[in-house]
Structure to design on (386 residues):
């Protein structure tokens, strides 16, 4: 099967030839794995580990006023940030007026400020809409070519409303608004939506396979916001995004990410029409139980522990975790293998390679159906945390 065929089978809850494997690694990890395997390129690494290679097709944009203020380039902990507004050698401002700082060691990114930390006047910001996107009639052809080459194609999904709102307002401020000033939350969501809906519509018109949204609404043991408030404020926004996009392309898939314990809203995520739930973080939820309860309604993605097993476990711990995920989550399709967040520099390269080699070599043919019993907790919880 090609990567594309494998993803289609998995999302249809059919058994593919192997579970799709996704690699999300820090640059330091890519470098360490290349060196360890004596390979030259990331593409060679992905092929060696049996990883499914998707392709991203972005939309060209032109932010006139922002680009007039651009004064330099910067690299950060997750790659090249590019041309931006530099406040100093480590601090930069993006086109949304959000100021961030690269840590002194270059390994982390710190939020600093946003355009609404000191004002709630939404008219004080020059909001983007469809006009920032540059028409490019060649995009649909690029998407079709990638599909013919066997790739699963991701489009430009715009901004995650919750994440973008708190970046512009400040996290504590926004959580206060969420409870005390929900009308303001609805108002800023409406402004963000003009851009997000435009991106989704254009991507759908280009024929991409999927739109993915990355942003957290949960913590290690609970939601960041009350589930009822999320249903009141965020759920209608997602409903609008999905419904309006599928008016253009009914077949397009939607991917929902949130770290933490999202169990209170999983039924809502399914009801909204999301196709993939990521990352089923094993320190917060038991992936096997999520699969047993919801696995026939949504595809699960992730589950590998980046807090315990990959950084702190032995090779046996790593292989045991892969076996657990495959046995309890991969039956009847509907499962994509990856770590539950970006694999970081604190993970020994031997563990990283063992994790993905075990997944690559795992024989799906021995899976006849769900396990007879579900473990009380994922194996990562038995890995000692120093």
């Amino acid at each position: 099967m090609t990567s594309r065929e494998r993803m289609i089978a998995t999302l249809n809850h059919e058994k593919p030839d192997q579970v799709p494997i996704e690699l999300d690694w820090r640059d330091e990890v890519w470098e360490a794995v290349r060196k360890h395997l004596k390979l030259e390129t990331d593409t060679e690494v992905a092929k060696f580990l049996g990883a499914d290679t998707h392709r991203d097709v972005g939309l060209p944009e032109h932010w006139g006023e922002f680009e007039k203020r651009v004064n330099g380039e910067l690299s950060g902990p997750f790659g090249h940030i590019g041309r931006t507004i530099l406040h100093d050698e480590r601090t930069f401002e993006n086109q949304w007026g959000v100021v961030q700082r690269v840590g002194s060691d270059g390994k982390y990114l710190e939020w600093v400020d946003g355009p609404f930390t000191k004002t709630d006047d939404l008219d004080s910001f020059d909001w983007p809409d469809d006009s920032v996107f540059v028409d490019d009639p060649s995009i649909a052809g690029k998407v079709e070519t990638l599909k013919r080459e066997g790739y699963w194609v991701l489009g430009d999904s715009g901004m995650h409303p919750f994440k973008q709102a708190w970046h512009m307002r400040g996290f504590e401020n926004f959580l206060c608004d969420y409870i005390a000033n929900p009308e303001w939350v609805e108002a800023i969501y409406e402004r963000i939506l003009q851009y997000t809906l435009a991106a989704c519509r254009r991507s759908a018109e280009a024929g991409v396979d999927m739109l993915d949204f990355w942003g957290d609404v949960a913590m290690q043991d609970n939601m960041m916001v009350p589930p009822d408030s999320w249903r009141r404020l965020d759920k209608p926004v997602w409903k609008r995004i999905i419904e309006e996009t599928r008016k253009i392309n009914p077949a397009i898939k939607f991917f929902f990410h949130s770290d933490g314990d999202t169990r209170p809203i999983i039924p809502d995520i399914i009801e909204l029409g999301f196709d993939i739930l990521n990352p089923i973080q094993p320190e917060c939820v038991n992936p096997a139980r999520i699969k047993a309860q919801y696995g026939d309604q949504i595809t699960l993605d992730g589950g590998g522990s980046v807090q315990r097993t990959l950084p702190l476990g032995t090779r046996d711990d790593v292989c045991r975790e892969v076996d657990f995920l495959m046995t309890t989550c991969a039956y009847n399709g509907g499962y994509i293998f990856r770590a539950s967040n970006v694999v970081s520099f604190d993970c020994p390269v031997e563990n990283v390679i063992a994790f993905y080699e075990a997944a690559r070599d795992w024989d799906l043919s021995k899976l006849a159906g769900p396990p007879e019993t579900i473990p009380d907790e994922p194996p990562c919880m038995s890995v000692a945390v120093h």
Notes: The chain has two domains: 3-63+128-382, 64-120. The CA atoms of residues 339 and 354 lie 13 Å apart.
